[in-house]
Amino acid sequence: MIAFLSKRLGIGLVTLLVASAVVFFVLEILPGDPALLMLGMNATPEALASMREQMGLNDPVLVRYFSWIGGMLVGDFGRSFTYSSPVIDLIAERVVVSLPLAIISLILSTAIAIPVGIFAAARRGRMGDTVSMGVAQVGVAIPNFWFALLLVYVFAVWLRLLPSGGFPGWGAGVWPGLKALILPAIALALPQAAILARVTRSAMLEVLGEDYIRTARAKGMPRRYVLWRHALRNAMIPVLTIMGLQFAFLLAGTIIIENVFYLPGLGRLVFQAITQRDLIVVEGVIMLLVASVVVVNLVVDILYAVVDPRLRVSA
Fold it and tell me: Which of 130, 213, 243, 311 is the most exposed place for a label (fewest CB within 10 A)?
């Protein structure tokens, strides 16, 4: 097991190194002068030269790349020229919004998808299966930003039960903060739940045709016990894979939802940094998101071994 985890950790470190090179050099070759974009067309040559010096644009590319990598290793992601603040401080301010939003969305998605997938698999070809998978297909097809606007109209404008946007901060209390995240979390969770429900159904159908399931039923085990104890555990490998991918998406892909609900999260920070050409912020946030994907994949690999003992033996 230690060798298995060491191998996965090594792959993750290589992934981070390759991703850092791709992120840095792709942003490096983008057209335009970052100093000119930040200061505007009316900036004097002296001001542009001073800004380029502050941003380190006069140094060779490799020097800047290795300096950036070395800084991240000690927790220094650089300094934002738009916000005049360390990038790590900006990330810390925004991640307390995006991370709870992603966790709540994943919990909602899982709580909806797994029972629906099991229900559909247990009633394959019947009315319950057709209806539940039809609803799931609609959920996959509907864009989450359109669904977000619909939620705002119903629950914020019409019923006036939840806020339509903004975030009061955790200093205002846990409930006001959670209340502001309910609608964004639902808007993110339901399309993901539709995908996860379809994957759960497919995995369950494959498992339900195995010999040990027929043996368990022949022994007279209750139907619910067979589904939840025997079938679900052996069908969890593809489900865990999709859940890991969804968490990474929910953490990194919330730009539209955070702008719809005016949430000060990582997605909105990246959007603002791109429009303002604050490349050091873009690079820092993207590397943080890549690291989160690597960590999530490592956790999913560990969960594989927990769910399936055969993987522990092979490892």
Answer: 130
